[in-house]
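Task card 7
Instruction: Convert sequence to structure tokens.
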Amino acid sequence: MTIHRSKPAVALALLATIIVGACSSTGATASPSAGASSEATSAASAEAPSAAPGAIQINGAGATFPFPLYSRWFYEYAFIDPAAKFNYQSIGSGGGIKQITEKTVDFGASDAILNSDQMTAAPGIQMFPTVAGADVAAYNVSELADKDPLVLDGTTLANIFLGKITKWNDPAIAALNPGVALPDKDIIVVHRSDGSGTTFIFTDYLSNVNDEWKTTVGNATSVEWPVGLGGKGNEGVAGTLSQNDGAIGYVELAYAVQNKLAIASMKNAAGNAVSASIDSTQAAMSDFSGQMPDTLARSIVNAPGADSWPIAGYTYLLIYLDQTDCQKGQKVVEFVKWALQNGSKFATDLDYVPLPDAVRNQVLEKLGTITCNGQPLKG
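Output:
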């Protein structure tokens, strides 16, 4: 069995290159691409910026889960406010939490819900959900290429990642896929090597559906994996999956789609086999939409609805409620408001799910409480 080293996903690397190139110019404002919105174009031409293009540099770091969407949002927003240049490092939720705690960036990003120790280490931090998305079990098995997606359930998925199921023709997989010719091939487990909100969502799900996983591995951004190869970022996991026949791993849905990976359907809490999609993730959100606490953070895995995708989660921006740089603070707030109010189309284009109205209104209300050195921000 040949195991190849992970390579970043080509399509996402290209996307990042386009974004960096588009946002790095400090000269005349670039013309929008064919994908840029007409609204963004007209807004940019109708009002001259108050500062030179890219004059206000805003740095963020964190989750790879929303990176395709955040890259698109930053690109589009450059036509709304050319003065603000957003630089985002897709380094994983663990890195984003560390950097915002140390105040080396202007905002962080995480798919993991901050624990009490993390909140204590960063007093005044607030989690702001931006969208929800789906973690998926993606696989690369040559004998199953161009076939209908495999069906898995929580117990089987947990046992694969526990190293208890090691062959693709294991009876547990065969029972969920009657009539499918499964190969007698080793399963290569692929997981994240870095601190990851994608891992947090995935292990949150496995902890909800499998007692052995809950007690021996648990739920966190980083865990002691019983078996498998590590890949850095969603990009690294997707690359490792693409390069290894027989591999299975977990990635955010957009990365699986970009890399043309097979995606397993999952039996949900209601016992129905469902596919990962905007609709099934929306269904999971709807199961909990009226229960968002004041922290604006909650788990939505293993949702009870008949059509709900079971491995779903919110992704969050991490922002201090009292800013110290008033100009940057104002720009961050303006961007988040724009993203929540005008960014839904770009989210759904990339298989993310916009917030339900009730949750979005809660987020916008909380944004309105952000201050700078104890004083209200303008606007």
